[in-house]
Amino acid sequence: MVNDSADIIVIGAGIIGCAIAYELALRGARVRVFDARDIALGATQASAGVLAPYIEAHEEGALRDLCTRSLALYDDFIARLRQDAHGPTQYFRTGTLETASDDASAARLKATAAALDGMGVRAEYLESADVRRAEPALAPETPGGLLVHTHGFVGARELAHALAEAAGRRGTPVERTCAVHRVTSDKTGISLDTDNGVVRASTIVLAAGSWTGQIPIAGVKPPPVRPIRGQLLSLNWIGEPLKRVVWGPSCYLVPWTNGSLLVGATAEEAGFDERATVAGVRDLLDAVSELVPRAWQAGFSGVRVGLRPATPDELPMIGRSTVMDGLVYATGHYRNGILLAPLTAKLVADLLIDGREGAELELTKPQRFGAC
Questions:
Q1: Quick count: other Cβ atoms within 10 Å of Cβ 104?
Q2: Which residues make beta-bridge pairs with 154?
Q3: pLDDT by residue (tens digit) across 179-195?
Q4: Phi, psi angle pair for 269, to nearest 5°
Q5: What value, to the nearest 5°, has the Cα angle with vertex 153 and ends 232 and 122?
Q6: Total-model pTM
Q7: Which of 208, 206, 210, 215 is nearest to 226 (CA)?
Q8: Which of 10, 87, 254, 285 has an alpha carbon within 20 to 30 A of 362's alpha carbon?
Q9: Could you give the CA distance from residue 279 to residue 202 in angstroms, rounded to a whole number?
């Protein structure tokens, strides 16, 4: 049986799929979203929501360029979403403090501060005493740190749910726990064999994260997207909370207004194994307690696990397929899916609604890995 069709079908209801669906719905497209799971139950559920391009991508290059462009979109992205979704979306631009562990890393951070200042980015290097004044809970031997004022963080899971809600209010349903088993095409369009029957569309956006290559698409070679397991801890903090995201040599810390502290994250080549492990939890507990000794007194409330979709060059795949007409990729964001969500949504909507190919698509084109 052929089910109702749509102009565009988005496969994947993580942060990227939901952001794209919302942006397309805003521009008047008739969209449906399918996911084998519920909303934000892939990599998004184990994201701390850090928005920090000058930490995630220290070196100048394509990744940092994409991340900084997306961060510049975030204020308007959240403001618009808050008008369309009832649920709260926690969003803070309180900066990040990246700590040095020795003289060599202190020198690197000092040089980075000078370079960022030269680019007009609000950043400064703090000596040891100033680091402790900024964040008193840090270990007393911390030699220095880089404070980047423009960074921040956002509630990743609630952001994805808000995007799905806002898209739904504009007529874009998210069909949860409805798997896509096969994609085929002919001269009249694209067909998707789903749990709810066959669905037709003129365009599909493949935003399935680590599962991108697990969806059979007739005549199309699976793209080189592999899962990287990330484990994230949630602690019940005691005492004065941290003021901002703190980034150490082996972990990062994100303080929430409810008193919890997120500690992330491992990066493990474990295939599609989504288990939390003793080794992962132990390593993160050791790392946070070395960075912030008071963490030994915190309560332990749980661990989240997500599979982050990585490409060979750690840049996302965003753009049209050259093999199947109507197939568009939006996947492979690895650790930067939350940060890159506004830019990815804009690029896909510009491409599909306005026929405009942003310059960024030259950096993210799928064909850099061959025909796909």
A1: 9
A2: 91
A3: 999 999 998 999 999 99
A4: -80, 90
A5: 130
A6: 0.96
A7: 210
A8: 10
A9: 46
